[in-house]
Amino acid sequence: MKSRISPNGLHIFDRHSGLNVLLDELRPEKEAWSLSPRQVSIALTNVCDLQCVYCYAPKHKAALHLEQVLTWLKELDAEGCLGVGFGGGEPTLHPDFVEICKRAAGETQLAVTFTTHGHHLTSQLVECLKGSIHFARISVDGVGQTYEEQRGKPFFSLLQGIELIADLSPFGINVVVNEQTVPELDAISELAEKAGASELLLLPQQATSSVASVNEVVNQDLQNWVSSYRGKVRLAVSEAGALGLPTCDPLPGERGLKSYAHIDASGVLRASSYSHIGAKIGDAGVMSSLKQLTNTVEIIQDTPS
Ligand code: SF4
C-alpha cells in the first residue's frame, strides 16, 4: 500500500490489486501535498519496428539508460508518485527492458505498467517479467484485415501477443479510434472480454504530420457507441480525446502536471507526449525539472493570447 497526500484528501493505492481509496474527510494543507505527478509515463526508446501512420512518437534515435530511469523513478516515488507506464517507441525493444521493470518494481513502490504492440512478446519474456509488472496494455487497432492495414502486422500474431500478456498480469486493450476502427468497436470489445482484459482504453486519433485528428462523424459514432455500450470490460478514454464523452474525475484537485507527466526518450519532461514544451532533466534531477516545467506552463497560461 502506498499513500499520497493531495488536495483531494489522503489517497491510498495498492499496486497489486489496483485498488484506490480516497479519504476525502481529510483536506491536507497545501504544504503537505505530494510534489510528484500522480502518474508518469516514460518513453524508454524511440525505436519501433512498426510504421503506424498515426504514431506521434518522435522518430529520431534516442533511448534512456537504466540507471538514469531508476534514479528518476526513486525520486518520483519518494515524492508521492503512484505509478509509471513504460512506452516508446516499442518498450520491449529496449535492451534493458526486463531489468528496468524488475528494478522499478523491486526498488520503488510504484505500480509498473507498460504499453506494447505485442509482437515481441514471447513466453520467455513473459516469464522474466512476471512479478515485476502490475498492469500491461496491448494495442488492438481493429480486428482482422483492419488491424493488418492499420498496423502492418498479421492479426494472428497479435492474438498470440494477447494470450501471452493475459498470462503476465492484469491487462487492458488500447484502441486508436479513427474512421477505420470505429465500426469495429463491438468486435474489439468482444475480443477484450473473451481475452480477459480488464479495461478498454479508447484513444481518439490525434493529429500528426501524416493524419488529422478524428473528425466530427467519427467522434459522434464514438459517442453513440459509448452510450449504447453494455459490455463487461471497463471503458476508459484518453484525456486528449474525451470531448463529448461521459467521464468522471474523482480527483479534481489534481490536474495537469499534478496528475500526470511524460518523460520522452531524450530525457525531456513534458506535460504529455504531445506537448511541445519540455524541460530537460539534468543533474539536479526530475523534481527540479518538474518545477521548471510547471513555471513555464503557468507563464504560458497567464500570457494573454
Ligand atoms: S507501434 Fe506504437 S510506437 Fe510503433 S509505430 Fe505504431 S504507434 Fe508508433
- Outline type: globular
Helix content: 25-40%
Looking at this structure, what is the CATH superfamily? Aldolase class I
- Report the sheet-strand fraction: 15-25%
Low-pLDDT parts are: none
Q: What is the number of domains?
A: 1
> Any idea what the CATH architecture is?
Alpha-Beta Barrel
The counted number of beta strands is 13
Largest sheet: 10 strands, mixed
- Write out the distinct hetero groups bound to the structure: iron/sulfur cluster
Task: Measure the end-to-end span.
Answer: 44 Å
Structural class: alpha/beta
User: Order of strands side by side in the largest beta sheet?
Assistant: 10-9-8-7-6-5-4-11-12-13
Mean pLDDT: 94
Radius of gyration: 19 Å
Mind explaining what this structure looks like?
- It is built from 8 helices and 13 strands.
- The protein has 305 residues and is α/β, with parallel strands linked by helices.
- It has one domain: TIM Barrel, CATH 3.20.20.70.
- The strands form 2 sheets. The protein has a 10-stranded mixed sheet. A 3-stranded antiparallel sheet has the order 1-2-3, with no helix packed on it.
- α7 (216-228) links the parallel β9 (199-204) and β10.
- α1 (66-78) runs parallel beside α2 and α3 runs parallel beside α5 (155-168).
- The longest helix is centred in the C-terminal third of the chain and has 17 residues, at 286-302.
- The structure holds iron/sulfur cluster.
- Iron/sulfur cluster binds at residues 48, 50-52, 55, 57, 88-90, 117.
